[in-house]
């Protein structure tokens, strides 16, 4: 029911007017948002991410030191199949990311992928997608904490116990992940993305200048790159899952577009992000693998010697910190929204607002820290969680989203274009299930193999993880 307007009031006197700085409004009410509700003067304004900030956030959810896993992917698959599969998965995830923007514009009340699950599958989908989303980002955030500890060890020559470095990383992550809005966090995303890109290109250029694999026992091995590989099914699926994980920022794109100032500019940011990320993956993977072959160092930043490794980690450290901050901010914001959405405390600067927000960030960071530090096979477990959850959140839901919006209207006409789009959505759903099942199987086999060979690491280990 529409509210009655007092005819004695001048409409312009009650309309919100924007100030010169573009953030504070003269009227009591700033805006009414389908997700964040009524935002008043002095409240937290979540809807303030520019399209350039959106680009940085998208890039940072996807690109990290994982880009240096591409040489191993190419070693398994071969350069030609590796590049082809990378482009195919890039195209599939780009479509998924595009669907996020389309679905958000059609359904403004959608904040996260759990809301999509509720629309598609009811309460069960809401809880399932929400749990998968939270678990996935906690594990990837924990992996980022370990990456920071590797950087500290590399720069300090293992100056202290690794468990201390992980704790320091967790403290940094808590302090900065408590920044409330993605708009304020976008500058960290720009800094982090730039630092990671510089670091990986330092290594790539140095490897090209070096012209050979890193020394092994004082001996320089021959580069043994292959144009076409001959992997087993498990090795091939592990490599494909790795590619999927490097594009698995899709679940976070719902949250990013929800905080955009102008969601209509979402596709501009997405195009820049996907092109830049794909070019970097191909260039870095091809160059490093061509010169190093199967002898690429692990971590790959050491492929051009100790000095270059330290320089690269020096540049990468701010980027790794930005990764941990953003990846842990996302599940914390998810929990915060679950508690306060639909209440005045969501945007109002109340005690409940701050206790809930800081409690959410502290809890998420602590869980990530405990999981990363206490599980003996954590790195393999991250691969398992990624294969099980990342692909499930990047492919199947988007095919279902298109069908949800277009099945009934198109079924009446059944045009050729509609039939082809339905076929594409079915392909996305089926291929997503295949990648999930096959990738999970490969990860379980890999965990079993790794545990038999090394027995895993000890909990809260002091051992140097930069080896």
UniProtKB/TrEMBL annotation:
GO cellular component: membrane
Membrane topology, from the record: Multi-pass membrane protein
Annotated GO MF terms: L-amino acid transmembrane transporter activity
Keyword Transmembrane helix: yes
Entry keywords, A to Z: Membrane, Transmembrane, Transmembrane helix
Chief location category: membrane
Domain of life: Eukaryota
Keyword Transmembrane helix: yes
Membrane-spanning residues: 79-100, 120-139, 159-176, 188-209, 236-257, 269-291, 311-330, 351-372, 384-404, 416-442
Every Amino acid transporter transmembrane domain range: 49-442
Signal peptide start-end: none
Family: Belongs to the amino acid/polyamine transporter 2 family.
Designated name of the protein: Amino acid transporter
